[in-house]
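Recall that a protein's primary structure is simply its ordered list of amino acids. Everything else, from secondary elements to tertiary packing, is in principle encoded there. The following example makes that idea concrete.
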Amino acid sequence: MKGLLVLLICMLTATSVFAGKADTVKLRQHLIAITGTSQPRNHQHTAALDEVATYIKKEFEKLQGQVQEQVYTVAGKEYRNIILSMGPADAPRLIVGAHYDVCGDQPGADDNASGVAGLLELARLLHNHRLPFRIDLVAYTLEEPPYFRTEHMGSYVHARSLKEQQAEVKGMISLEMIGNFKDEKGTQRYPLAPMKLFYGSRGNYIAVVQRFGNGSFGRSFLRNYKNNANIPVKSLRAPAFVTGVDFSDHLNYWHFGFDALMITDTSFYRNSNYHQPTDTIYTLDFRRMARVVDAVYTSILNL
């Protein structure tokens, strides 16, 4: 009987490891570290940005793969993307990214420490897998104003480097605000009022956002994501000029001709703490954030 019990425990443990469930404790630990800098991690405070970059780099270095810094200079100051590469070096690659800087003087828990925490947890889940393609997990700097939509965005620097290398890119996934969820009616807003008729008024879902003509990667990933998500998923395909569709790092991969999409809780269309001092970890739903990460992880394994 004792031997059977031990066998069952081992089987359950093995199943749990294979399932690779995102850990809410680890997500919270990452959020505390990222939002806990003595100064806001904006473009003016390079010491705070470097503190977070160092934390991300150390977390990446715990895992299998190659870690590198992509350093560049803006207005006489150095900024850095942190990259973890897994899988065959010369294989087609999948990019998964999230920005770690904030806009102004605020903690930026949802925007976008939630995305970075998800990126770190995704890296932990993926690092023991042997995949036929390469995965680059990238933590970007300078996504926020005043550098948004400029060539100084970390994602622009990274996407341009892929173009210059003539890298074969399967697609790109931007994790942009993945921690705010609300079940009450009237908690979800939209850029166009009629959208409420199709998507509902409850902010209880995660959105997969793409532009028209995004290519086969987006269709394949969305199909996998809907099949694997333990959370409601809404899909939005729209022209890039619809407000919010290109409001993150994926826009720079579009610029260089790569398929890219955004996974988001819809940002300011739901979260009233957007770009405010009230954007703290106490406003986040770690259980549902973990489910978002789980679905990304499983979808990648099924690409």
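The chain has one domain: 22-301. Residues 2-19 form the longest helix (18 residues).
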